[in-house]
Amino acid sequence: MPFDPRNTPLSAVEARVLATLMEKARTVPDSYPLTLNSLVTGCNQKSSRDPVMEVTEAEAQEALDSLRLKTLSVQISSTRSTRWEHNFPRGIGVPEQSAVLLALLMLRGPQTAGELRINSERWHRFADISSVEAFLDELRERSEEKGGPLVVQLPRAPGAREQRWAHLLCGPVDVNALQAAASSAGTGGNASALQQRVDALEAEVAQLRATMQQLCEALGVEPAAPTASAE
User: Is the pTM of this model over 0.85?
Assistant: First the structure.
């Protein structure tokens, strides 16, 4: 029986953990499956995340254990380390393309079909926006026997050209709250180009640290302590 969010909706941390596993399987396959440390680093990235979260190792481990009971994550143990991988498409009961869209909505919040196509470039290359919309329509019209709809199309925001989509894996969405947040973001303006560059660099450094940690674990050595920056 596919996962039914109406009966057992995901928590915010579970959604972030599951989507991060999905992301890293496609963007850094050489580092996948992930250790707990690498997973936490991915969950707490400053870029490509909405909202930005501060997930602890204990919270991530609890989420992984819960996802495993829901058949959405798989633990892989070895003499060196315990790693984790997702079982997203099979556990949810959707094709790979739909799983990609759901994971992006969990990581980045509500998005238009055009934004989803752009943001999925490293995960899966959709032919055009119509292809994205077709998979979103399937998710919206999912039958009750399969667990019901997994996405909802939000009302058009004032001044917006396209409607955004949101996932339902964490249960029903508060449309009014999402609309208010979108309006607030619009009046406050987007992050500056400098801040975006800083976020991207922070994400790159975090990924490099995670890769170094994995190499040290594989070699059985302790990673060097980071040097303090000059004041």
Answer: no
